[in-house]
Amino acid sequence: MQPDIPNSLFSRVRFVLVETSHPGNIGAAARAIKTMGFSDLVLVRPRFADALQQDDAIAFASGAIDVLQNARVVPTLAEALDGVQFAAALSSRLREYSPPVLTPREFAGTVGEQADLQAALVFGSERYGLSNDSVMQCQALVNIPANPDYSSLNLAQAVQLLAYECRLALLPARSGAPGSPDSSARSGPRIGFQGELAAAAQVEGMYAHLEQALVQLGYLDPTNPKKLMPRLRRLFARTGLETEEVNILRGIAGHVISACDKRG
Ligand code: SAH
Question: Is any ligand 1 atom within 6 A of the Cβ of residue 93?
Answer without folding.
Answer: yes
